[in-house]
Known about the structure:
The complex is a heterodimer.
Chain A: E1 2-13, E2 16-27, E3 31-35, H1 42-49, E4 57-62, E5 65-66, H2 73-76, E6 79-82, H3 94-104, H4 110-118, H5 134-146, E7 152-156, H6 164-179, E8 183-188, H7 191-197, E9 200-205, E10 208-213, H8 215-221, E11 226-231, E12 236-240, H9 243-254, E13 258-263, H10 268-276
Parallel strand pairs in A: 3-8, 3-9, 6-7, 7-8
Antiparallel strand pairs in A: 1-2, 1-4, 4-5, 9-10, 11-12, 11-13
Chain B: H1 5-21, H2 23-26, H3 30-42, H4 49-75, H5 78-83, H6 89-115, H7 122-146, H8 150-165, H9 167-170, H10 187-195, H11 204-232
Amino acid sequence: MDVIQVEHIRKRFGNKDALSDVSFSIPKGEIFGFLGPSGSGKTTLIKILTAQLNPTSGQASVFNQPTEMMQQSALKMRFGILTDNSGLYERLSIEENLELYRQLYDLPKSSIDKVLQFVNLSGERKKKVNRLSKGMRQRVLLACAVIHEPELLFLDEPTSALDPVNSAHIYKGLRCLNEKGTTIFLTTHDMAEAELLCNRVAILYQGQIQTIGLPRELKKQHRENVVCVDLINGEAYELPIDEGTAVQIADWMKLGLIERIETKEPSLGDIFIKMTGSELL
Amino acid sequence: MSISLKRARAIFVKDYKEFSRNYAISFSVIVPILFAFLFRSAGPSLPGAIGFLLNTSFVLLTCLVQACLIAEEKERNTLRSLMMTPATTMDVLIGKSTLVFIVSVVALAIGVYILGYEPASIWAFVAAVIFSIILYTAAGTICGLFSKTLLEASLSIIPVALVFTGAPWGVLLADDFPIFKVLEYAPSVQLVRLLDIQNIGFTMENLLKPLLIILAWTIVLTIVSVALYQRRLKDE
């Protein structure tokens, strides 16, 4: 069953298309990565899917309901969202912020302890939000978005302000949430993050999907058909993958001359640059 | 439109905590009490004192605090986060307005008590004050929704102050400038008319006319504030 279906969505601001003819679907339980540089239309799409914006044309549905219905409380109970438009109450503590969300979602008190563990902030619960670092704020925002263990989670650059240790903690938590059945729609320009987390990715550039697929398949599709061989005497070769190379490598191996051997596989970042001619910023 | 009292209460409790820790805004509570002390020393029979106290407090307390609460939520993106939760428009607006309503009622009750004002009809006085608090809360909501920052919200109440608080003075110029006759229908002028009714010899019509005009303003501004909030749910 598809949780999100997007058909020929177009969004125009003034005389510029933020999104043009975007179509894709996301089945239940998937972590879907929407990759692209800043201003490519990622946040616009999240806004359309959560009924904060109307598309200029095309159709989108979430939980098999048209996106206009996403303003209903019953549907809002089923998704969580973290974007750069999310905010916290500065004069309240982390716990007081979460207490508000706990009551709005009608959850048991234990949900606060659970979500604080998820974002690794159990020891900081009494701290006022205005005294938190940017990374800690981001984790509190994430806690607010997942406190009700939503069926669908929209994440817009969730780890952009986090250090590697906290990012790793969040990745672990998101995978755990996903294993429990949460579908995750993740936008990012961090290709390493996408490779690590996503089952499937789409690359968005200038409002259009350039490619969509499994990260492994995309890499295979864009792989250069060469093998790199480093020999122990310091020589390095880049050879085409064919029978002749296989024989040559077998000979070197018999003689014990090979130090390193690898196929030349592109990263998602390389694929993005190849498809768009642009660097990810 | 569904209303969840549990969610509205959660928003009220959150606002109360924020308000009690924000001294710049919570300071407004002393406005009616301060005016009451000033006018009391001048004598309780000072003409127009009660009208000035109420009409000024509605703007500097009710309208300003509500506008600041809404604008601060917008400035810090918490309003958008709140809109993404199951809380409905009415949950949010009732939750946010309840704090301002209670604070205004308590501060005005203390102010009126200190001033020693005795209305001709207590029920008409209470009804007029309650309608006015709701009216100025709605006006504050509108100001807050049009503002992007706290500073803008503080400035946005100036037109409300000029039109509503200034109307009882403006109407005095109606003989020279007939256009000011329109101010006769301002809620602040009608409140002054109601407050000026003498204890003896008034009719039900004397009470009902100003009350109904204030009520009409209350209904219209409340509808406008709800409609405007609904529009703000979208980013268009």
